[in-house]
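Memo to structure team: turn this sequence into structure tokens by end of day. - J.P.
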Amino acid sequence: MSPKKPPLEKAWLATPLWATGVSAAVIAVAQVDLLRPFYAQWDKGAHAMCFLVTWWVFHRVLGMGRVAALVLAAALGAFIELHQIGLPGFNASWSDFAADLAGIAAAWALAAAFPARKDSP
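Reply from structure team:
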């Protein structure tokens, strides 16, 4: 008889799917011109939070090293800003990229403050 998995372990497997769904929802909301004025004041915070979660998923969920997760998350942030150059209604911004990097740095600090358990997947 196999032991039951703790609920946290079961939830851990769903984290990449959850993160993908949240990211898709954020991107969908960002496409609606009428909604932009309502979240414009939280733009930098949203960038930081999204990239905190992105780095965390790369590092803790997918098992990448800290530096690899940093490089991949930063490259994703840079790609998004470069991609916005050609999108009507969007503006590429160094301050958005800086907010992305701030979120990555916050995630790194959280990972250092709360090391992964040895028995986590």
